[in-house]
Amino acid sequence: MALEDYRADVLRCSRCSYCKWIPFDHVKSWRFAKGCPSIDYNKFQSYSAAGRLVTGLSLMDGRCDVTDRVIDVAFKCQLCGSCDVACKVCRYDMEPLLALHELRFKLVEEGHTLPQNTPVMEGFRKEHNMLMKPKGQGGKWADGLKVKDLSKEKAEVAFHAGCRSSYDRDLAQVPSVSASILQKAGVDFGILGKAETCCGGRAFHMGYRADFTSAAKHTVKTWTNAGVKTVVTPCADCFHTFRRLYPEVGSQVEVLHMVEFVDRLVKQGKIKLSRPVTMKITYHDPCHLGRQGEPYVPWKGKERKIFGQAVVYDPPRPRYNGAKGVYEPPRNVLKAIPGLELVEMERIKEASWCCGAGGGVREAYPEFSSWTAGERIEEAMSTGAEAIVSACPWCERNFMDAVNAIGGTMKVFDVMDLVQQAI
Amino acid sequence: MAFSKEAYRALEDIVGPDNISDDPALLDTYAFQYLAETVRPNHSRYMPRPVAAIMPCTTEEVQAIVKVCNRYRIKVKAYSTGWYHFVGAIKPEDDTVQLDLRRMDRILEIDEKNMFAVIEPYVICAQLQAEVMKLGLNINIIGAGASTSILASATSLAGWGPSTFWMGSNPDNLLGVEWVTPAGDIVRTGSLGSGDGWFCGEGPGPSVRGVMRGNFGALGGLGVFTKCAIKLVHWPGSSQLDITGTIPAYRLPLQENFRAYTIAIPTWDAWADCFYKIYDNEIGYVFHRQFNLAGADLAGAFWLMYIDPTKTLNDVEQMVKQPEIKKLTDELRISFQLILAGRSVRDIELQDKILDQILAEVGGWKVKRFCEQDMAEFTNLYFARMGHKHLNFVWVGGYMGSWMQGGTPDYVKGYQPIAAAQLARDQKSGLLVQSGGDALMGCGSGVAGGGHMALEQFVCYDPADHDSVDTVIKDMHGATADAVAHGYPPGKEALYLSVGMKDEDLYAARRRAPQPFFRYQWKIKQAFDPNDVGDRMYMTLPPEDETTD
Predict the structure, then answer these.
(1) Which residues are CB-contacts of A385 (< 8 A; sequence separation ≥ 6)?
(2) Where would I find the H helices in B45-189?
(3) Nearest CA to A333 among A288, A379, A283?
(4) Which of B56, B76, B103 is the last residue of a domain?
(5) What are the structural domains, with CATH classification, of chain A?
(6) What domain range includes position B525?
(7) Of B234, B265, B284, which one is at a domain's C-terminal end?
(8) CB of B430 within 8 Å of any CB in chain A?
(9) Which chain A positions have a beta carbon within 8 Å of B145's beta carbon?
């Protein structure tokens, strides 16, 4: 696809502003009614999904040039998908999130890149991770674990740690705990360890489509050689990349997030969460596990009109609107832990507020990223919870940094941290 | 006077460099507007590009901006949530500064005892409603829905909605107002103007409601409203909307003191009688002919598709052919929605009995399929929050409203067949959505207690298809012609199309049907906007020898 393929989406945008808010039925207060961090932080109309669509149209029609403002507008957004969900409350013929991606692809392919992204992408190409760290530093979380090495052995289940928790010492326990849980449950699985490369999802979101494709093909080939049929990951970013983006490059593996896997194991009685964890917590839905975590549905078709002018698709187009995101498995797991009190924030599931780390924003716009996380921490605090729990190391890193910046006492956990305490 | 760097710097000094921009791409996002393609050359989706977009955060900043615009003779136009082609620059030859009031987004006060709230322009209906519901109070959410600025609908436009029958319209509910006039003066109206708080719009301080907004509002053409107080009403429901269901088919389970009905009536005469009886008996919390916005031929299939999250518009094509849907479609042809809310179970039981008696008298009935649990809970939520209102655009992204002449139900039923025949005629081209000639919808009443209402024809077209846009424009002209031929004044389409007219054509049209208020408003403009910084959306008619622009 190309930006031009979304021209009709722009022309049919009614500029209703739904993209700026959570679905209105979910609004419970003045304070937590906003859905789009970008427009809330940056204010000008350009920084909404509708504004970005128009920016793309203006560029396509030659009404404007690529200015610093245009680049800022295109990249100062987490691509969290809140706009996409809200838009589709009333529309079946719009794909704002895909169009926002295409705007970035177009700019990057034409050489209009963000200078802040350059070292990150150099690290991705040379070191195969997004944290600009030497690749040898990754995979230390697996030291001492006796698990199969997929670069040498075969296994039907691959455990993919993801580069955030592989290279971030504060989060290294997440893959370590996850692997232990898989072992305890008797799952025959393998890892790539230090040979694990970045899934490429964040490069994709930063606009580097070709780099993503190259990384994806490499990973799919590795899995194929190792006989992998199922991939499990504790990272929501990797999960989304494998589940929604990899099929486009030929992947046919089943993709599960660790919370789905544990939920399954608990229901099957293969692990028991019996030790009380006395704590009041709230759960943050990662965008890439929740509203963007819907199953991939292959589609190739075209627009058709019925009743004169009403737009439909032939064959019917899959509808990604957050309805089938992964919302219940993490909640099921948390609710299965004795002593744990789960209280919900106002914006949850498809209406969740972003952690601020996605879309390259953490790397390129740290202040905006931190503000977005801070907003979520404040929402978590308003519930009376003492901890915010998530299922994505990128969210957790951003929350930890925001708590440090704010100076609060809110604790940050991964679901797997609590599972470990409860086993 | 052309927009100069000096003028830009003067504006920048007021708000700081982060809150003003003249980047062409950024300005295009302000120029891109709903309905632009119906009034602009080559069906462009852009209205004229403003020379700058600026975001003040206080009344004092607004005042300073307006004064700079006076000094440099620049048009100034403010919007809050910003929707419609008339909310920004109108004429390409004018230098217009776009005020985006997004940063003025606070609820300043909720006075529970005296039942009013004080708000800034960028507070939307959903936000204020969520806050006041916690106190057992509610607001009138206008027909355009939960995304709109409540201040804008109260100060600058017609603020009617499905709950107006019970709650009053927002212009009626408007209390104290803070207004920055086009000359840059700050006017505080009603009790606010005498230092007595926000509770009254008509005194003991100055009452200028007629001057600043009149009946329909100045549509942004006469200064900037920076704060207002709005009347709140009783809400007998829970303190928050505890919704269920899967997106987009969210639902609100009915509490024991609520009912959500779709009611069908056998004839339009009986329909009008039914409306009078509802007015006379004072039942109903929300009262609207809403679901017909999907068009009478498609409404049954469309709404049943919509409340099933596994379905898409593709399914409507097959659903309309099913015998039970065909029967439902016919049943819904003369129908409306009614939400009853009782202060107690006994109260709701009484309202139910009264409604049943009214229906027995007019031969009406509750539409069984639309009153079943799934659809009733959806209906309950739809009207409680008005958060699905942009289904106006569901077919293909374009909708334009015509007709909507206000009057008694007998007056309105008179133009129903004319409007239906006119749209059916134009739909035959296949360039409009063929949803049936009757896509008329509107409030049960535009005033509290009933008596005065209107129906708007929903004409759906593809904004990405120039032939379709051409057709909707012709349809709008056709609506005006058919209305006039049958003795009705032009409908709302005339306002929409006038946005693109040349001054001389607009004024000539007004002179053909001279109305005193245009000339009166010209005098108001002379007094309040001596440097002509407001635009012509404040409707005036200059004396012929003064028509220079």
Answers:
(1) A280, A281, A282, A343, A410
(2) 59-72, 125-133, 150-155, 164-167, 170-173
(3) A283
(4) B103
(5) 1-112 (1.10.1060), 117-267 (3.40.50.1860)
(6) 501-546
(7) B234
(8) yes
(9) 24
Q: Is residue B135 part of a domain?
A: yes
Q: Is A69 on the interface with B (CB under 8 A)?
A: yes
Amino acid at A102: E
Single-letter amino acid, residue A326: V
List all residues 6 or more positions away from B512 whose beta carbon is below 8 Å from its beta carbon.
none
Q: Are B493 and B480 in contact (CB under 8 A)?
A: yes
Stronger pLDDT, A144 or A286, i.e. the higher one = A286
| pLDDT digit string, tens, across residues B326-350 | 999 999 999 999 999 999 999 999 9
3-state helix, strand, coil in chain A (%, to 5): 50, 10, 40
Which run of H or of E encompasses B300? helix B299-306
Q: Is the peptide bond before A393 cis (omega within 30 degrees of 0)?
A: no
CB contact under 8 A, A25 and B427: no
List chain A residues with CB under 8 Å of B252: 25
Residue B218 makes CB contacts below 8 A (sequence gap 6+) with B156, B212, B534, B537, B538
pTM above threshold 0.95:
yes
CATH number of the domain to which B402 belongs? 3.30.300
Mutate which of B32, B80, B329 to test chain A, going by most A C-beta atoms within 10 A?
Answer: B32
How many domains does chain B fold into? 5
Residues B468 and B362 in one domain: no
| Alpha carbon distances (Å) from A319 to A79, A93, A102, B163, B374 | 18, 10, 19, 33, 21
- What is the rounded CA–CA span in Å between residue B70 and residue B235? 45
B80-101: pLDDT as tens digits? 999 999 999 999 999 999 999 9
B227: CATH: 3.30.465.10
Residue B535, token pair as written in the block: 């635009």
Residues B303 and B369 in one domain: yes
Q: Which residue in A has a C-alpha nearest to residue B57's C-alpha?
A: A43
Half-sphere exposure of A168 (CA within 13 A, CB side): 22
Structure tokens at B119: 């708000």
* DSSP calls for A3-30: GGGGHHHHHT-----GGGBS-GGG---S
The answer for B 234-253 residues in CB contact with A (under 8 A) is 240-241, 243, 246-248, 250, 252
Cα torsion angle, B269, B270, B273, B275, sign? negative
> Looking at the structure, do residues B380 and B406 belong to the same domain, yes or no?
no
Residue B375 is which amino acid?
A: M
Which residue has 């219940």 as its token pair? A328
Nearest CA-CA distance, residue A299 and chain B, Å: 15
Percent of chain A with pLDDT over 90: 96
The answer on B386 and B490 residing in a single domain is no
A 313-352: CB under 8 A from B = 313, 316-317, 319, 321-323, 350
The reply to whether B241 falls in a domain is: no
Q: In this prediction, what percent of chain B has a pLDDT beyond 70?
A: 99
Shared domain check, B301 and B223:
no
